[in-house]
Amino acid sequence: MSAEPIQLLTPTAAQRTLADRVREARIAMGLKQKTLADRSGVTLATLRRFEQKGEISLKYLMRICNALGRLDEFDQLLKPPPAASMAELESRVATPRRKRGSR
Asked: Residue 44: which residues within 8 A CB-CB, separation 6 or more?
């Protein structure tokens, strides 16, 4: 039986942290909110709400990160853990993936 991972952040705290990091990246690049909004194709109101409250859709977050040159960092999210053995690695490749989840 595996133990559940301990999470140090709540979803709300993680949102705030991400919003703070985006704001810091924008400022470090010398961009005003309006400039980043224009470059990303996100409305100024959406960008402001994100930076203030951490609320944004994934679609718009991707656009903002792309405009900041940071989109590649999302590649690391939710990757499967490294295989513990060669057999486990082979089973990942050989096992067909389910098309739908169980009910």
From this structure: 33, 34, 37
